[in-house]
Amino acid sequence: MPTDDLPETFHVTTDEQLRAVSNLTRHRIMAVLRFEPATITQIAQRVGLAKGSSSYHVRLLERAGLVKVVRTRKVRGVTERYYAMAARSIELPDPGPGQPDMLLRNAVADLEASPVDGERHVRMAHLRLTEEQFAQLGAELQALADEYQELSDPSLPDVSLAFALFRPAPREQADGDSK
Questions:
Q1: pLDDT tens per residue across span 20-67
Q2: pTM of the model
Q3: pLDDT of residue 3
Q4: Which of 7, 14, 83, 165 is buried most, with the most CB atoms less than 10 Å from its CB?
Q5: Does residue 178 form part of some domain?
Q6: Considering its fold, how many domains does the chain have in total?
């Protein structure tokens, strides 16, 4: 299925949709479907699930509108369904105060599950930026991610990129600390 037919963004707006994308297994299923349609059997193999579990999670994603059937074919009298993402990207609502950021939580879980002996580039930097520099860096990071997403080839191995540019909550000074 050509991705040209897909809407650019799917906005998660309901509790059902948020629950669907918050689950790590469903997050990994959506990663499988990011570049090309797949059957329940193919999804199960790629994610490392039983077919029944894969089917259950895909049905929840389909009910939430996040994935859809894009093609069917008959195989030995059984209708095989190919699922794909409902849009090129999914936009999650900002988490409320004190709530976890599901996107980052899933990214960290994927990083922790990646092969330890595999190549990784992980870095955290603490910066002090003006509002203009902050906005410029955010735009540059987004443009770089978009540029490489356009270069993505489904025949190549998966690579995940996660970044977060944010201003941390002000640190409260501990009792007795001097300025």
A1: 988 989 989 998 998 889 999 999 999 999 999 999 999 999 999 999
A2: 0.70
A3: 47
A4: 83
A5: no
A6: 1
Residue 67 structural domain: 3-112+122-151
Which residue is it, tokens 């996107």? 103
At 143, which amino acid appears? A
Q: Which residues contact 127 (CB under 8 A, 6 or more apart)?
A: 137
Distances (CA, A) of 97 to 24, 91, 94, 100, 111: 22, 18, 9, 9, 25
> Which residue in this structure is represented by tokens 């707006």?
13
Name the residue among 43, 70, 45 with its Cα closest to residue 57: 43
Beta bridge partners of 67: 85
Structure tokens at 120: 């990784």
Residue 169 is assigned to a structural domain of this protein? no
> Per-residue DSSP letters for 46-86?
HHT--HHHHHHHHHHHHHTTSEEEEEEEEETTEEEEEEEES
Beta 67-75 vs 78-85: how paired, if at all? antiparallel
Whether 168 is covered by a domain: the verdict is no
Is 66 part of any domain? yes
The CA distance from 125 to 121, in Å, is 13
Tokens encoding 41: 């059997």
Distances, alpha carbon 42 to alpha carbons 6, 8, 171, in Å: 21, 25, 47
